[in-house]
Amino acid sequence: MGLDFAIYGRMKKLYKHHFHTEGTHPPAWVLLGCGTVSSCVTHVLVYPLLLPRIRMQANDPKALEIQRFHKTMFCYLRDIYREEGLRRGLYRGLSPSLAKVVPAVSLSYFFYERISQYLLERDRKALALQTPKI
């Protein structure tokens, strides 16, 4: 999640800098786009590390054998790569996983931004009402 958030924040800053919109809130399509790209990139990078857990949850015989002999996760990933290859082994199931994760993460970032904006604006208005005028 930290990598995802870092990529999202960087993309948002790049948009603001490139389009000279510093100090304004990006439109919804920008937030959704930044969330989509950041979650895709992060998921593609991290997916092979999630594979052992996914296979163990699915009761994969190879995963259960690894677990029985107390091999490390990296040994398991190495064995998958050697036996099944990169695309058919380490990234098998990536497309359905992206179809599930990307919309959820994109919408989460969108709502996070909009709710943050609303709360900050509400606090500013409440503070302005409390400040005595001289």
* pLDDT averaged over residues: 85
Structural class, by secondary structure, is mainly alpha
Low-confidence stretches: none
H/E element order: HHHHHH
Kindly report how far apart the N and C termini lie: 47 Å
Number of strands: 0
Quaternary class: single chain
Please estimate the helix content.
over 70%
Overall radius of gyration: 22 Å
How much of the sequence is in beta strands? Answer: under 5%
Largest sheet: none
Number of helices: 6
Q: Using the alpha-carbon principal axes, give the shape.
A: elongated
Report what the structure shows.
By secondary structure, this protein is an all-alpha fold. It has six helices and no strands. The radius of gyration is 22 Å and the shape is elongated.
SSE arrangement:
Blueprint: H1 2-18, H2 28-57, H3 61-68, H4 73-84, H5 86-90, H6 94-130
What keywords describe this structure?
mainly alpha, 0% strand
